[in-house]
Design a protein that fits this description.
The protein is mainly alpha-helical and 71 residues long. It has three helices and no strands. It is flat.
């Protein structure tokens, strides 16, 4: 995808702004899962698109405090 990283960052900003405006909890996994080239780190994915077990573990550590806060 041409400019995929830029499009992903722009989309994440729009989603974050929407969530904030509507008081919806938002967690951005991208910074924790990206590599030095802003792609999904190979440690967290087998295909470069979908998270593997380690990727989901990172995601869980980010989302669990948010879920616990809104319970």
């Amino acid at each position: 995808i041409k400019d995929g990283t830029a499009k992903l960052k722009a989309l994440n900003k729009r989603i974050q702004a929407y969530a904030k405006a509507n008081k919806i909890p938002y967690v951005d996994y991208y910074p924790a899962l990206k590599d030095a080239h802003d792609a999904l780190d190979a440690r967290y994915s087998g295909d470069g698109v979908h998270p593997n077990l380690e990727g989901y573990h990172i995601m869980e550590t980010l989302i669990k405090p948010v879920i616990d806060k809104i319970k």
